[in-house]
Amino acid sequence: PVPAIGWRKSDDTTFRTSLLSWLGPWNLDIFAGQLSQRKGPRHARLLGARVQFMPLPGLELAASRTEQWGGSGRPASLRSLLKVLIGHDNVDATQPDDKEPGNGLAGFDARYILDLGAKRTVSVYGQGIGEDEAGGWPSHYLATFGADAAFPIGTATLRVFAERADTSLNGAFGTPILGSAYRHHIYTDGYTQQGDPLGHPAGGDVRLTSIGVIADAGAWTGTVMVHRGDAYVTSQLYPGGGRLSGEDVEVAWQMDPGSRIGLQVMRWRDPLATRTRAQLWWRRSFR
Q: What's 16's DSSP letter?
C-alpha cells in the first residue's frame, strides 16, 4: 500500500448544467501519496486521478492518470508541479534530467453492461494505458480486455470472467516495444512501491490470460482465479522470460457494518521459482 490522502465523489449524480448533463452520472477519485522505493529518488510522490461517466444506460467511460513526481534531488517547485498536471512530463533527449518533472501514465477505459433482468448481466470491457506521451496525449499503450457474466444462485450472486492483458508497449495493437513498460530512467525502481508493480501485478512485458469466479453471498464473499501466460525476456519481474502460471483464492467476511476481515492465498510459478504468499487483512470503515 501507498500512504496517501484523497477525495472521492461517492454519489452518481449528474452535472446540473445542460452543457455537461449529457455525460450522465459521474464520479471522481483523486489522491496524493508518497512512495518507498529501493532505488532512485527517495520519498517520491505519487499523484493520481480517475473520472468516470455513464452517458448512456449501461455504458461506462473513464479516464485516469498517475504521476511519479519529486523526491530527493528532484524539482519540487510549483512550476514543476504545474508541468506535471498538464502532461508536459517529457523533455528532449539533449536536455538534462532536472528539466523533466516526472513520470506519468494515463489512459482510458470503457465497459458496456447488458442487463438481462432477474439480476443477470453480461458485460465487456477494455482499458488502454499510455506509458509515454505525445502531443499532450497518452501513447504506446498497454492493454487489457475482458468479459464477464453475473447471475444469481439461490441467495448468492456469481460473476464469472475472462481477461487478457498485454503489458508491453503497443503489444496488443502491433509490434511490441520491449524493455520500457513501467520503467523510467529517473525513477529507476520503475512504477513500483517497495518492488511491487503499481500497474498490472504481473509487471511489464507480460502476456497473461486470467479466468475466475467471484461469489457474493452477502456477509461472505469469495474469489478464485487462474492465470496462464508468458513473459518476454525483457520482463520487469521475470528476467529471461518464460511460461507463467498462478492461482489466487480469497474469502472475506463482513463482521459488522464497519468491519471486514479476509484471507488471501496466492501461488505463482515462473521459470525460476514457485512462490506462495498468504495475506490476512482487516478493514475498518467510519461513516
A: S
